[in-house]
Write a structure and sequence with these properties.
Blueprint lengths: L18 H14 L36 H11 L2 H7 L1 E4 H4 L4 H5 L4 E4 L10 H16 L8 E4 L17 H7 L2 H16 L5 E2 L23 H6 L2 H7 L15 E5 L21 E4 L1 H9 L2 H6 L5 E4 L3 E4 L8 E2 L4 H12 L4 E2 L13 H11 L4 E2 L4 H13 L5 H17 L19 H14 L1 E5 L11 E5 L6 H5 L19 H8 L2 E5 L11 E7 L21 H13 L2 E7 L15 E4 L8 H7 L47
Parallel strand pairs: 1-2, 1-11, 2-3, 3-4, 5-7, 6-8, 7-10, 13-14, 13-15, 15-16, 16-17
Antiparallel strand pairs: 8-9, 12-17
The structure holds alpha-D-glucopyranose.
Length: 661
């Protein structure tokens, strides 16, 4: 059962905490580390006597920044108790510790996360940095002063923060076919995120969406695994390309997710809530799985050296081997250990998805044991950290989880912490706060929006628009920044309305033309206009909540959108339709009524980028990253299918010259 924070409610209000308190606590811990180590032990390990952390003020090897990372890891590992090791493998939600952050110290937590919408109040860069530094001070108060790693879903910009630069969602970035732009996007995202505290992002999604009915389709760069692989410059943008980059204030550790097959599940196989595709079963043979689902992970590991990977909630069921039963990725030793770590050579660490292990069969000790032994290294157990720790310790003590597996997991986690420079600089380097949402960052997002627009029809020279034209704009999504940003924006599910600063598509159009009328429901008189612009689309959703078949979600246009098209395109001699949605919508019957049709995706905070191409200030260059179906029933439909008769094929998109023609 998911307990994602629905919004930044009082439940997540943090206890104000100054950095000074943290420094004092850390100093107190240094003193404490000199006292007999029995104090640091838990009753379950009576015979363990760990070596002290500090000896007479001498710098221990793991604290020496001049030593190689592997040496520091080994030194630190050799000083750790089992309890401390298990603590490093545990990640809690900030909301679970905020009212009593001393739990970070007592549980020896290795990591915290902000789930979608788990924000400080006020939701400002300074409040984020103060909050995370406060938590950090409690981590530094542990016997060995191991810093905390803070993770967050920066999936289209630092999207939990109000005022961040919000980029188009990945599906739009796939349409740009511009890997350098994706790298720039994620470098900006890394800069804005790390300036506020988190040093780790749960991005990029390397999901290959094979069924547009999937609610996470917009998180995917596209249906072709090779396109997804090309866009792995995202990882370079996040992490940098030199080993030293990670420690800099403009980089973060990246996560490739959700390994693997999350976008390739069979409709109707999900057993979670009322989902239909998300968290379902990928029913496949090894050859197909390697070619479609696994392929993006090979360059992610070998070429881009991604620091962490999140196994998918979904299951894999082989049609060419095994016992023919679905195995959850969190329990999938074959794919986590044998394939990913051993064959592909992944050196980073595996982070379980939100309470993902709870979906495994058996009681809690069985779930924990199965997942650790399958190869998971860190556990996102948002509200169950304490139970997780005691359970795993017992499993190790009972000999059901080998100590070597624990050491391997902790080694991987500590390596990342050293590489991120956290032992030297545990607190937030805030120097880049002034760049958050800056004109320079927004300019890159605006360019991304423009490059992602896909022109699917242009008859009668309807586009480009001219500044002198009288323009009639209709449709709710023309002037709704929450809708154009989509899910994972300030809250997990996203929200309609005025949620973030930025520019709506309508505002962009108004900047380029002086005679613009806006009527959301097209009720204003339509006479006297040269051109109509009808914006149709979806309202925000995230994950399985947006699966078609769940909660009324469908690929079909709403009746209000169809009515707007009928009215505006029926009355005004030229009409342009924009689709603001996370996936193609069914427009087969409406297409003949339109002169021009543009897929705008979920552009984020910079709606002017849409106007830039509409008015020909930038050319249309976007190409479909997914196949556009004729009907919902045509799903799943993908390039390479034996019977392939879509409305628009994968890769389609009319390109125009610089002036929009
Ligand atoms: C979710 C998602 C995952 C995300 C995590 C943390 O359940 O599946 O993509 O990173 O929670 O918010």
């Amino acid at each position: 059962m998911r307990h994602h924070p629905p919004s930044a409610g009082p439940r997540f209000r943090r206890t104000p905490r100054s950095r000074l308190v943290g420094v004092l606590l850390a100093a107190a811990a240094l003193v404490a580390s000199a006292v007999p180590t029995a104090l640091a032990r838990t009753p379950d390990e009576p015979s363990e006597t760990p070596p002290p952390a500090t000896v007479g003020g001498r710098t221990l090897p793991y604290l020496n920044p001049h030593l190689p990372v592997e040496r520091r890891v080994s030194d630190l590992l050799s000083r750790m108790t089992l309890t401390e090791k298990v603590g490093q493998m545990t990640q809690a939600e900030r909301g679970a510790v905020d009212s009593d952050p001393s739990q970070i110290t007592s549980l020896g937590l290795g990591s915290l996360l902000s789930g979608g919408g788990s924000t400080p109040t006020p939701n400002t860069p300074q409040a984020w940095a103060d909050m995370i530094d406060g938590y950090q001070s409690h981590a530094l108060a542990t016997r060995l002063h191991i810093p905390l790693l803070y993770g967050i879903d920066s999936v289209h910009g630092d999207n939990n923060l109000v005022g961040a630069t919000i980029f188009p969602h990945n599906i739009a970035m796939g349409a740009t076919r511009d890997p350098a732009l994706v790298r720039d996007e994620e470098h900006i995202t890394a800069t804005e995120t790390r300036a506020t505290g988190p040093q780790w992002v749960f991005a990029a999604c390397l999901c290959v969406t094979r069924d547009k009915r999937w609610g996470r389709t917009y998180e995917s760069f596209g249906e072709d695994p090779q396109l997804v692989a090309r866009m792995e410059t995202a990882i370079d943008g996040f992490q940098g390309t030199n080993p030293q980059d990670l420690a800099r204030p403009d980089h973060v550790l990246a996560t490739a997710k959700h390994y693997a097959g999350d976008g390739d599940t069979t409709y109707g196989t999900s057993t979670t809530n009322s989902y239909t595709l998300d968290q379902g079963v990928t029913i496949t043979d090894h050859q197909h799985f390697d070619r479609i689902d696994l392929a993006p992970y090979v360059p992610a590991v070998r070429r881009h050296h991604v620091g962490s990977i999140m196994p998918s909630y979904s299951s894999v069921q082989w049609t060419d081997g095994g016992d023919g039963k679905p195995v959850r990725m969190s329990a999938n030793k074959e794919l986590l250990t044998d394939v990913l770590k051993e064959k592909i050579g992944f050196q980073g660490f595996l982070i379980s998805d939100w309470e993902a292990i709870h979906e495994l069969p058996g009681d809690y000790p069985t779930e924990v044991r199965t997942a650790v032994n399958a190869g998971l290294d860190m556990f996102m157990e948002p509200y169950e950290a304490s139970q997780f720790e005691s359970t795993l310790i017992s499993e190790v003590q009972a000999g059901r989880v080998p100590v070597s597996r624990i050491d391997d997991a902790v080694r991987r986690i500590l390596r990342a912490k050293f590489e991120l420079g956290l032992f030297e600089h545990p607190y937030t380097d805030r120097r880049n706060i002034p760049t958050i949402g800056s004109p320079a960052h927004r300019a890159v997002a605006r360019r991304a929006v423009a490059e992602s627009q896909v022109l699917l029809k242009n008859a009668q020279g309807a586009l480009p628009l001219k500044p002198s034209q009288r323009i009639y704009v209709a449709g709710v999504n023309a002037d709704n920044i929450g809708n154009q940003a989509g899910g994972w924006t300030v809250t997990w599910q996203g929200q309609s309305g005025n949620t973030i600063p930025g520019t709506t598509i309508l505002q962009g159009i108004e900047q380029d033309a002086s005679h613009v009328t806006y009527s959301a429901d097209a009720s204003a008189p339509t006479s006297g206009y040269d051109v109509g612009v009808v914006v149709v689309g979806e309202t925000p959703y995230a994950e399985g909540i947006g699966d078609v078949g769940n909660n009324g979600h469908t690929l079909n246009l709403s009746s209000a959108d169809r009515a707007n098209i009928d009215r505006v395109c029926g009355a005004i001699s030229r009409c342009v339709v924009l689709d603001v949605a996370g996936r193609p919508q069914i427009v087969t019957d409406e297409l003949p009524k339109m002169d021009a049709f543009v897929m705008s995706w979920l552009p984020g905070s910079e709606g002017e980028g849409v106007a830039d191409v509409l008015f020909g200030k930038r050319p249309f260059t976007g190409k479909l990253p997914v196949t556009w179906p004729r009907t919902e029933g045509q799903e799943p439909i993908n390039i390479g299918d034996r019977h392939y008769d879509p409305l628009f094929p994968y890769g389609y998109g009319i390109t125009t010259s610089h002036h929009g023609r």
